[in-house]
Amino acid sequence: MDTRKKILHKALQLINQKGFSEVGVREIARSLQLSPGNMSYHFPRKEDIFTELMDNYMQANSENYAGFGEGAPTLKRYLEIVQKALQLQYKYRGLFLAFPYFFGEIHTGRSKYPATYKKRKNDILQILTSLQHARQLQLKKSDIDFLFSFLSLFGRFSIIEAFMLHRNRKEADILKHYLTMLMNQLLLFATASGKRSINEFRKAYF
Amino acid sequence: MDTRKKILHKALQLINQKGFSEVGVREIARSLQLSPGNMSYHFPRKEDIFTELMDNYMQANSENYAGFGEGAPTLKRYLEIVQKALQLQYKYRGLFLAFPYFFGEIHTGRSKYPATYKKRKNDILQILTSLQHARQLQLKKSDIDFLFSFLSLFGRFSIIEAFMLHRNRKEADILKHYLTMLMNQLLLFATASGKRSINEFRKAYF
DNA sequence: GTCTATATGGAGATAGAC
DNA sequence: GTCTATCTCCATATAGAC
C-alpha cells in the first residue's frame, strides 16, 4: 500500500473512532510514523483527506445503486442494495457525522455532494417506479411521494442515528434494526408477490 | 436583556447561519461590542455556550411533550405536539448540526443527552399506547416497534435533513413537508376516528 | 517522495488591572 | 462585570536537505 492510501486508511480509522474534529493531521502522521511535512505533501489541507474519502464513498455508492438496473426488479434485490448501502455508510460512518464541518462548502458549489444528491434521488425514484411496474409495490401518487421522503431520511440518517446513540453496537445488529424497519415500511405497500420477495430477503439474511 | 442572555441569543443566531465551528468566540464578542475576555467571564469555554443553548432546548422540548398528557389523546393533538417540537428544533437548528462536535462528550457521561433521550423514548411510547387505547391507532406489537423506530429517526433528523439539503427553504414549507410525511405514516395505522382526527389537523393548519 | 525545521495566523483560554 | 494583554495550541504553508 502506498503512503497516500495508508494515510487515507488510517485517517478513516481514526475519524470513525474519535470524530473528525478530534483527529489532528499530526496524529495521523505520528501513528503512521510519517512527518507532518510529508502529510502536507500528500494532502495540503486536512479537508482534502475528508474530500477524498467522501469521493471514494460516493463512487462506491453510485456503483452499488447502478447495480439494481442489471437484474430483475424485486424487493429482495432492492433490500440487498440498501443493505450494501448501509454497510458502506457504516464503513465511512465518521464522515457522515463530520458533515457539518463541510456545511458551508456544500452550499458554495465547491462540493460534489449536491450533484450526487440529485443522482441518488433519481436512482431511488427509478427503483420505486420499476418496482411498481414489476408489481412488487402498489403505489398511489401520494404513496410515491411519501415513500421517497421516507427513503431519503432513512438512507441518509439511519447510520448516523446508530452511530450517535449506540456507538458500540455491532454492525450486524445495526443493520438488522434498520433493515427490519425498512421491510416493515415496504410491507405496507407490497403486493402479494412483493411480500414474498421481502420474506425471501429476510430468510436469506436473518 | 443581560449580557449573558445577549451572548446566548447572538450565538444561536450566528450558529444557525454559519454552523458552530464557523462561529468564533471573538466574532460573537465583536458583534455585541464585548471584549473576548468578557466572553470568557460568562462562558469559560466555547462549548459552554453550546451546552446552555442545548439545555434550553431540551427543557422547552420536555415541557412540550409533557403537555400531551393534559388533554384528550387524539392524533390531532399528537400532531400539534410534533409541530411544536419541529418548530423548536428549527429555532435551535444549528445546534443539531453541531452534534458531532460533542460526540465524544455524549459518550463520556458528562452530557445530559442520554438521560433526555430515555425520557423522550418513554414519552413517545406512552403517547403511542394512549393513542392505541383511545382507538385512534390500531397497532400490533410489531407495529409499535416499527412506529417507534420511525418516530425516533423522524423526530431527530427531519430538521437536520431540511437544514442540510434545503438551507434556504422557509420554515413553513419545511414543517409542511415533514408533517405531511408524518400524517401519511400515521394514516397507515389509524382507525376511522383516527383518520378524522388527522384530517382535522390538516384542515386546521394547511 | 520523504524528511527536518520553521514561520504564520487564528482559535480558545487565562491573568490581572479597573 | 468588563477590560487589555498574553499564553498555548494547532492547522497550514514554505524552504531546503536527502
Specify the CATH class of the largest domain in chain A.
Mainly Alpha
CATH superfamily of the largest domain in chain A: Tetracycline Repressor, domain 2
Topology of chain A as a string of helices (H) and strands (E): HHHHHHHHHHH
Describe the oligomeric state of these chains in a short phrase.
homodimer
Question: Average pLDDT across residues of chain A?
Answer: 92
Number of strands of chain A: 0
Rounded radius of gyration of chain A (Å): 19 Å
Between the first and last Cα atoms of chain A, what is the distance in angstroms? 35 Å
In terms of DSSP E residues, the strand content of chain A is under 5%
Q: Give the biggest beta sheet of chain A.
A: none
Given the helix and strand composition of chain A, which structural class is it?
mainly alpha
How many distinct folded domains of chain A?
Answer: 2
List keywords for this structure.
homodimer, mainly alpha, Tetracycline Repressor, domain 2, DNA-binding
